[in-house]
Amino acid sequence: MKIMGSxxxxxxxxxxxxxxxxxxxxxxxxxYRYIFNVLSELDRKVExxxxxxxxxxxxxxxxxxxxxxxxIYIPIxxxxxxxxxxxxxxxxxxxxxxxxxxxxxxxxxxxxTHYFLSVKKxxxxxxxxxxxxKLQAYRFWDTLYAKLLMKPSCTAADKIxxxxxxxxxxxxxxxxxxxxxxxxxxxxxxxxxxxxxxxxAVIQKLQLRAPFVFYNGSITPRKNLMRVLEAFxxxxxxxxxxxxxxxxxxxxxxxxxxxxxxxxxxxxxxxxYVEEEELMSLYSLAEMFLYPSLCEGFGLPILEAQACGCPxxxxxxxxxxxxxxxxxxxxxxxxxEEIQAGMLKILxxxxxxxxxxxxxxxxxxxxxWKKTAEEILKVCH
Length: 381
What we know:
Elements: E1 2-4, E2 15-21, H1 30-45, E3 51-57, E4 70-73, H2 80-98, E5 102-105, E6 120-125, H3 140-156, E7 159-162, H4 165-174, E8 182-184, H5 200-206, E9 212-216, H6 225-235, E10 242-246, H7 253-263, E11 268-272, H8 276-285, E12 289-291, H9 300-307, E13 312-315, H10 320-324, E14 328-331, H11 336-348, H12 350-363, H13 369-379
Parallel strand pairs: 2-3, 2-5, 3-4, 5-6, 6-7, 7-8, 9-10, 10-11, 12-13, 13-14
Antiparallel strand pairs: 1-4
Helix pairs in contact: 1-13, 6-7, 6-11, 9-12
């Protein structure tokens, strides 16, 4: 175990805020971006603020990125066993020594052994897709773990951060959490996400063919990619576009790949993981971003696309319309007909397309990681 920076004495007059950041770098997804960007903003404020930040983690990706924060780095593996040991044993040892005022959990669950720690616990609820059986939103063991421990975690928490009003409502309805215990704090969008014109190298590297439409995100059943493919297949003779898909192949991807191989072999390409610079180029070059997800706690890719000037098609369920504002074409994600009609509307109506782009640029002004960090600090006082 390695402590990067000294642990301050218990007599410190500053508010001590901890972040429980175990295994966030396994997949550079929304949770990693949330914690990395919030910590980056807080790190800038430490010297001028009346607070100290402590990061308890096992991620080489997080080391020494936050010079004004104090890191408790525990180099332990990422298997289920290692995660349990980190959560229930090692972390308790260090947390007792730290004597924090607040401890923020960014991934839904507060470990059982933490319930008795004398620290104000703040549980961040990202979404409740685990409780929607028909969506198959997460792997079996992750779903089982969440179902067993999410409600007790909400009970043990002194405060709950919901990343959208939609998530707050589901917390109230499904887990019977008192509304006054829940604080809605939206996620943000990086300042670096913007439309780029320097795309030639990316075009060559990824062998992109214009024109194209685009999807970015995990390839899981809740992302609704099968209906996207069915809609695209229905209108492929009306448009010349290629559909590019980025993101990790997970459970449910076999059906997607089989459908593409059978019906859309020359029109749909799965690019897999791409670097952030390549992602911005894809958003900037695409004529439409497709995101009719069935379940989102927030939906960061919607803001990414809008920030890069890409018109968005998204769904009318969970947090998607809340995040998209009026800068997206909204559809019923269960209707293939609505998805295909929306695609044609955006691709064939230039005036409408540019209206969505303009409204998208306006919409992203509502969100920033600085604002997210400041709202977290308001609670920790």
